[in-house]
Amino acid sequence: MGTTPDGRRQFASDNYAGICPEAWEAMARANAGHVQSYGDDPWTARAADLLRELFETDCEVFFVFNGTAANSLALASMCQSYHSIVCSETAHVETDECGAPEFFSNGTKVLTAAGKLGKIDPDAVDWAVRRRTDIHYPKPRVVSVTQATELGTVYGPDELKAIWARAKSHQLRIHMDGARFANAVASLGCSPKEITWQAGVDVLCFGGTKNGMAVGDAVVFFDRNLAREFDYRCKQAGQLSSKMRFLAAPWVGMLEGGAWLRHAAHANAMAELLHGLVSAIPGVEIRYPRQANSIFLALAPAVRDAMHARGWHFYDFIGWGGARLMCSWDTTEADVRAFARDLAEVSAGVAGG
Ligand SMILES: *Cc1c(COP(=O)(O)O)cnc(C)c1O
To answer: Does residue 112 carry a pLDDT above 90?
Structure first.
């Protein structure tokens, strides 16, 4: 996609954005003096305690460098190599992790399940288990849900509980890819526990990067038994940070004053504004309901190319295609209006000429 020479804020991804002030400031504080290495430090302990407070339960917490590692290692901790993981066909673990879940689990197969709008249909969980029960089929062991989904939709507590009911009936565990968990909480206005352990989630990969950190995802085990020897798994995979305080401090900075939720709510609000402005443009079609911090547009190729020529970056290969526009913690109203103005001009030009 090239670079963004004018330095403008883009809608290509929430990880185009920089580090938010709260995370940055906490890293600066963590940078004063020496502390213990490999996670034996006060920042890591504090961040884990804050996550336990946030989820209102005594969960086990680990910090790794990114979401692919978090998902892959969390899934591997629940599976034997002959098991399988049931997820949506648009799930990041299926389409965007280069086979890492299979690799780190020594061959656990990812099976896709049907559903609408990036979600898994509870009936599809049944089907994945029941279609074959013989020895030749990779035995389903985990359901993996993404919250918010890759299509920018959000599972409500009842939808998660419906999946849980099916999962429980087949003794399946539940993994949640929460790369945009904060956006989902902000969208639902619920407490974090309602869409995690109170809805049957065994392990959550809680993303920090897309919410304004430089790096670092938290792996949160609600079933502490699953966390047994997870520290060894992280170390072997190259995910044990020697200067762990720099992965942990941003969590402290963002959890202490509630910035994690404020930033997510802001990104969601900017997506809502963008949705409103572009849906008024003739010829622009919005593909999925706007629930988190993204919208997807069906754009004519000429319109897409003209927007790229005006310096706007966005992807059109994510999920089931369409131009994905993603808002971040630092997206401004002016950014949104500038994009919408260009899209209106370009669309009128293409239609007229
Ligand atoms: C971004 C993202 C991840 C994590 O990706 P990394 O690049 O490995 O940090 C995981 N799941 C979803 C749905 C994502 O959007």
So the answer is: yes
Q: State how far the Cα of 4 lies from the Cα of 14, in Å rounded to an integer.
A: 15
Of all protein residues, the one whose alpha carbon is nearest to atom 15 of ligand 1 is 179
Please tell me if the domain spanning 21-256 has the same topology as the one spanning 259-352: no
CATH for 259-352, options being 2.60.120.330, 1.10.540.10, 3.30.70.100, 3.90.1150.10: 3.90.1150.10
Would you say residue 3 has pLDDT above 60? no
Q: Give the three-state DSSP class for 174.
A: strand
The pLDDT value given to residue 257: 96
C-beta of 88 in contact with ligand 1 (< 6 A) = no
pLDDT for residue 4 is more than 70: no
Per-residue pLDDT at 5: 65
Backbone angles phi, psi at 84, to 5 degrees: -135, 160
d(CA 316, CA 291): 19
Give residues with Cβ within 8 angstroms of 104, minimum separation 6: 72, 73, 75, 76, 233, 237
**92 in contact with ligand 1, CB cutoff 6 A:** yes
**In the chain, where are the structural domains located?**
21-256, 259-352
Does any ligand 1 atom lie closer than 6 A to the CB of residue 175? no
Q: Tell me the CATH number for domain 21-256.
A: 3.40.640.10
Burial of 55 from C-beta contacts in 10 A (0-12 / 13-18 / 19+): buried
Ligand 1 contact via 146 beta carbon (within 6 Å): yes
Q: How far is the CA of 340 from the centre of ligand 1 (A)?
A: 27
Ligand 1 centroid – CA 98 distance (Å): 12
What six digits make up the tokens of 172? 């399946």
